[in-house]
């Protein structure tokens, strides 16, 4: 456990530059909110464990909802479990500006992924409240449900509900690790399929969605910059690939008479690692999870289920890599005399970010004398889903050593606060320019 109940807060504030406490923004408030959310689902390794649609995610949303109400926002939860805090603009006829992210996590993840975007979006309101400022356009903070997908091996369920960008038949097939269906999990959360469908919003009511997120990479750290402009978001394809052979006694089955699914799967994993560079400089492929059956020490594995994460910022090359991986799986299965099949749990288009939006972000960074460093996002985000329906903007905050989805995940408070300053000014600039 943490050394003290305020360990994360104290570490964040340890070398904090108090000159960043200006224009109504407060580093201490931000640090204290990171601390409070970190206590929900805290693991023995000092990580976060708040999978989507669990009691831990609900508790984190409850805490954020309380902060929103204290800031004077109208708070609502929709039928997908998404939470929204609304600050009415002086011209309520104009489409709103929305900002936010998520508070769910991967198992034993970090304390900044998702939560930074939520805390940052709310800090903008706190600053406006102190100044007595009401924006021209309505401003909404979004806390999306189940972005990470830890429960169903396929995430972004909250933002998909808001945009209507999903296949309901596919969601009905989802099962979590306990065998519970998507419908049953919704019902555990006081929701249901009908309410999930009803969560869809009219995207004409949203002028722009802005997300702040940790980079989850090393580019900004290597450049020595606190934050950067995201140029586009890679579209992930998640595949479930199953190799099926024959179980047998480990001692009595000759090596030349085996159909070992794990041997075939291992050969496949090794080859997948080499494939992205044959397709694109920006493509990546990862086998991050596998299940072996019957998983006995003295039993030849009969079946191995793998989960492949395939991404690129370009649709054509991403899809070309997916097809190459399928062909490779079939080739290896034939070599080792086993069967193979696959299914897709997720396929999302890459999301470009408009040049005019990037240019306005660049102008905003210049106001703070921060060089405009532009970089793509290899990870999927709620902004990716929103970007299929509305204009989006995205800011990355520097990540220490590029570590993410780990208790070692870290972003310095000074970098977080500089990003929040940019976010606040950018939203104010959008209010003027649009």
Automatic annotation (TrEMBL):
Signal peptide: none annotated. Keywords: Hydrolase. It holds the Pfam family Peptidase_M20. Residues 233-333 form the Peptidase M20 dimerisation domain. The keyword rRNA-binding does not apply. Belongs to the peptidase M20 family. This is M20 family metallo-hydrolase. CDD domains: M20_bAS. The keyword Cell wall biogenesis/degradation does not apply.
